[in-house]
Amino acid sequence: MGRPSRYPPEFRVEAVELVRTSGRPRVEVARSLGISDGTLAAWVAADRDARSRADDPDGLSETERAELARLRHENAELRLDREILRKAAAFFARETTR
After folding, report:
1. In terms of DSSP H, where are the helices of 23-97?
2. Model confidence pLDDT, tens digit, residues 53-97
3. What H or E segment, with its residue span, contains residue 10?
4. Cα torsion for 54, 56, 57, 60, to the nearest 10°?
5. For residues 18 and 40, is the Cβ–Cβ distance under 8 A?
6. What angle do CA 45, 50, 52 make, to 5 degrees?
7. Terminus-to-terminus CA distance in the chain, angstroms?
8. Which of 22, 21, 41 has the alpha carbon at shortest distance from 30?
9. What is d(CA 39, CA 57) in angstroms, rounded to the nearest whole number?
10. What angle is formed at CA 19 by the lines to CA 40 and CA 16, rounded to 5 degrees?
11. Burial of 40 (0-12, 13-18, 19+ CB in 10 A)
């Protein structure tokens, strides 16, 4: 387990909200709050990830969702190809035994 946070959760939420709504650069917001830019960047990234997970119950990003759709389509095509080849092999096996 990690060390306890030096900053209360309310402070983190307000800092992230300030970055999102103020229009000021993150570095400037961090400096004005007396925290490092890296710390604030981590909070903003965690908030962004939490929001994207809340918007998407599957936890998939837009690119992951597109890739999943492409792979499902490709899988269906490959199953069809396999079925056609299986039937063709059975047909030619019958033809060669005549």
Report:
1. 26-33, 37-55, 62-96
2. 666 666 677 888 899 999 999 999 999 999 999 999 999 999 887
3. helix 9-22
4. -120
5. no
6. 95
7. 73
8. 41
9. 27
10. 55
11. buried
The two structure tokens encoding residue 80: 């069809």
Tokens for 40, please give them: 């604030």
Tokens representing residue 9 in the block: 């959760």
Over the range 53-70, which residues count as b (16 or more CB within 10 Å of their CB) and which as e?
eeeeeeeeeeeeeeeeee
Q: How many CA atoms lie within 13 A of 87 on its CB side?
A: 5
Fold for domain 1-55? Arc Repressor Mutant, subunit A (1.10.10)
Contact residues for 30 (Cβ-Cβ < 8 A; gap 6+):
15, 36, 37, 39, 40
pLDDT digits (tens, 9 = 90+) for 26-47: 999 999 999 999 999 999 998 8
